[in-house]
């Protein structure tokens, strides 16, 4: 028997409870994994609280990412004792996920732990951090180098935002952070943000084109903030958009695209191909400043998840939350 957080539906309302499961309850997939750590992402918050239509089949073990050790594998790529990390592919949404001491998953979904990376570090980074790295890669591929000028990160004190600020400043970019929580200014400066601008200022609806301020951007929130970022992006700049913490709307015009050659690059981590994931994980191992991660992440137990899920959906969680399955 082992512990898991199980979601059910009761009269259309999502309920979450820690339960005892047995191995025979697990889905029939290639690889049995003993889970060491999972993490809490915005999407997990929506799933656990039922505030977002993330889960359609109940009962469900949520948790969109995990790190653990292979116990049994029917696939020749993995054998007992291998350390693996998983993010995305609909795990924790359509397939049972990381909030359990054991998981059965498809071998295709797994990535071997990067050489020299501690298991806990992969979940300190988690889906949010992997997405932050994919956004940084998108800026680089669009030609946004540190010498091009300042870059801006929205939702900066959140999971994706914190890791993005940290990676970008470590790579030598001049980073401006947008936050709605002035009390996180010190934290963001420690992660490497050189300037802080308020959410209020950036959420003001923009004219089609505003004064050019940013060589590039990582946007985790959408809506008028993304609209304003696009209107303020420099000629030839790139905006990597990965989130909707404000909303899924995007009030903008074609003007930044047709008059300033601005590129809006969408970033998805869920279906990201294996090679690109592996590359992003390798880079996270070497390019996320070591001192940052301790500041970014806190550790909680399975039992604390419902409380933290409520907080993350209210924009009240700072940085990253690791879930220790053995606590
Ligand atoms: P967090 O909740 O940790 O961070 C979101 C941050 O956004 C908050 O901390 C807050 O930052 C800011 N924020 C919250 N509400 C609002 C609002 N109403 N208006 C403006 N800003 C707001 O979430 P994550 O970092 O885990 O995820 C961020 C987004 O990225 C989510 O929408 C998530 O779904 C998406 N995502 C997408 C992925 C993909 O593959 N495309 C993968 C992972 C995440 P502050 O307090 O600093 O203002």
Write structural notes for this entry:
By secondary structure, the protein is of the alpha/beta class. The protein folds into 2 domains: 2-113 and 293-324, Quinone Oxidoreductase, Chain A, domain 1, CATH 3.90.180; 127-266, NAD(P)-binding Rossmann-like Domain (Rossmann fold, 3-Layer(aba) Sandwich), CATH 3.40.50.720. Helix content is 31%, strand content 28%. It has 10 helices and 15 strands. The strands form 3 sheets. Strands 3, 4, 5, 6, 7, 14 and 15 form a 7-stranded mixed β-sheet that branches. α3 (159-170) links the parallel β8 and β9 (175-179). α1 packs across α10 and α2 crosses α8. The longest helix has 23 residues, at 119-141. It is globular. The mean pLDDT is 96. Bound molecules: NADPH dihydro-nicotinamide-adenine-dinucleotide phosphate. NADPH dihydro-nicotinamide-adenine-dinucleotide phosphate is lined by residues 41-43, 127-128, 131, 155-161, 179-181, 184, 199, 220-221, 225, 242-246, 267-270, 312, 315, 317. NADPH dihydro-nicotinamide-adenine-dinucleotide phosphate binds next to α1, α2 and α3.
Summarize it:
Helices cover about 30% and strands about 30% of the residues. With about 325 residues, the chain is of the alpha/beta class.
